[in-house]
Deoxycytidylate deaminase (Marinicrinis sediminis), 169 residues
Amino acid sequence: MARKDWDTYFMDMAYMASTRSQCNRRKVGTVLVQGKKLLGTAYNGAPMGVPDCSEAGCMIVEEYELKQVEGKEQMVKKQRCVRTIHAEQNLLLFTDRGDREGSTVYVTDQPCWTCANMLANSGVVEIVFHRPYPKDSEKVRKLMEMKGLVFRQLEGYELPAGILDDVIH
Ligand SMILES: [Zn+2]
Ligand SMILES: [Zn+2]
């Protein structure tokens, strides 16, 4: 078997972290990397000591989103779980500012607007993601461009064997 490149290696770790998530609607994992050194891992979850999605069920909110449907803008109703702290935010809570300066974040899913905003102010200089999140994609890309952060999707990445069933829905 060919040796894994660093991008694949760290994205695998982000997916490993995501398997810890107890939210059945979305499992997100992320790692902080400085040079080639792993400085932190995190996943989405309820605050420590508070019942999580597996115990208390997901906390669903419904929102309307403006979407392009066959070339027309339409309001589409969407559901999401708001019980958890997002993986990226947990990563920022559990790492030091000094460690983050000039570092790279690998995250299984493209960050939402709030997480992107926080990452943009966190000292991180590069964000690598795998699965797209179209809802916030455009404004997040603009923000990263303005901040001069490297923001890239890992193309051609394949999930490590055995992880598949747990994180794909
Ligand atoms: Zn949930
Ligand atoms: Zn987020």
Notes: The first strand starts at residue 29 and ends at 34. The longest helix spans residues 134-147.
